[in-house]
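Why does this matter for the project? Reviewers at the last site visit asked to see concrete outputs rather than summary tables. In response, this paragraph embeds two records directly. Each consists of the residue sequence and, immediately after it, the corresponding structure tokens. Nothing has been edited or filtered.
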Amino acid sequence: MIRRIVVTVLISVFWCGQLFAEDETAAGIQEYRDLLSDGNPAELWVLSGEELWFTSVGPKGTSLETCDLGKGPGVVRGAYVELPRYFPDVKKVMDLEQRLIHCRMAIQGLSYSDVTSYPFTKTGQETSEIEMLVAFIASESRGMHMNIPLEHAEEQKMFDLGEQIFYFRAGSHDFGCITCHSGDNRRIRLQELPNFRNQDQARKTYGSWPAYRVSAGEVRTMQHRLYDCFRQQRFPEAIYGHDMITALIMFLAKSADGGVYNAPAMKR
């Protein structure tokens, strides 16, 4: 009986110590983020993206000022918090990066290869134009509430597909989005793993992308975040701008509905 009491006490002390250590770690990580947040380098991407938006380029020698992101031609204010959405002119649901691919081809006359061959900046090389444009457009929705439409049948279909992808497990390690993002208080190394079945966490997380990654020295978009997630799950390489990625973005964005958007943010 005494031995059982002693063991119980020791276990209790151990778990208290673990919880205290986790609290200390979380506090330390937050302090690190707070220090970094003073002067986010992403603002440089925002300024460059704004310049690109108004610059005439391509075979047609035009800017993107007539690109309709869902709020009317040329309107960027508040567009990001309502994407992905259905676009009647192409009769499909698009996220921001898909829509930019379409606009750059249709308005500026660039080829599909021109606008998709270099979506993510490689270390030590020239910054991807798409990442700068996304940073600018996303920044124009700061302080607004996520408001993802599911009014059109195609939007509902895309959401349903994204939900299926989120819960789908496969690959050599039987991984899926749910492996990392379906429970509270999970962490890999020092990185917190948000629970997308918890709306508060979903809002906070989705509302902070795109983000400047300190480890990469670049701004990374949601397309890149999911591209890297699939790589870590040992899935086949995701195709940039594919409808499957847009579907997953639709599900994640809708999970964050009502949350205040606050990006580009800063990540480790």
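We now turn to the second protein, recorded in exactly the same manner.
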Amino acid sequence: MPKPMMSGEDIVRDTRLHDSLSRIRHVIIVMSGKGGVGKSTVSSNIAQALSLKGYRTGLMDIDITGPSIPKMFHIEDAKLHAEDDRLIPVSVPPSLSIMSMGFLLPEKDSAVMWRGPMKTSAIRQFIEDVAWGELDYLIIDMPPGTGDEAISIVQLIPKADGAVIVTTPQDVALLDGRKSINFASQTDLHILGIIENMSGFVCPHCGELTDIFGSGGGEKTAENLKIQFLGRVPLEPVVAASGDSGRPVVIAEPASKSAAAFNSIVDKLIRTVENR
């Protein structure tokens, strides 16, 4: 059966989408099977670490109903403006550009009650109507699960470099993480690796590591599924404090164990993506 003819408007939109994506060298999608595993913290620190290493980086928050990235960079009050019919993302030093639904809400606590098609339209606009410019990396912070937003992204960016799966050591998080892995497999989305977040609590007084939630589940899952294990990120009070203050831990506490873990993960990601 022949495909329906595209309208002039559809052709223009596809051209804008292709134009935006053609300027972005690498796209990394950060996913989690469930909420509460620190996915946005991971996304923020990966993006910030890449920019600190000299890469032109974009961070796109597509959690339409629960955007948290603006808070993590203390830019909730940022106002967007347009140039040449495109929105200018919010700039964070040294070379990070950020776009989030949070910038478009009338109030910080405004609820977004949208069904799937409206979410899909917003995500498309975040790509084609935002002046990302020339980027080395675009990090996409997904909402939890494998719903509308996840499906929209793999359809809009079929040539993404791949997904990073964030989990915690608990069995329930690992179970949901495997669902994200199955989603990636069914949609031909390459999996770049698994990150085990909140892997042990680091005492702020003595530095001792205690496995409150267990440890090693993410690595074992990666081994069983023959997926790269990117690393463990410990649970440290400085991570929560840096998120609340709007400065990711890689820049707020660069000597911390968490910052070291994130930098190691980013180095692995760079090697993996650049060598594909």
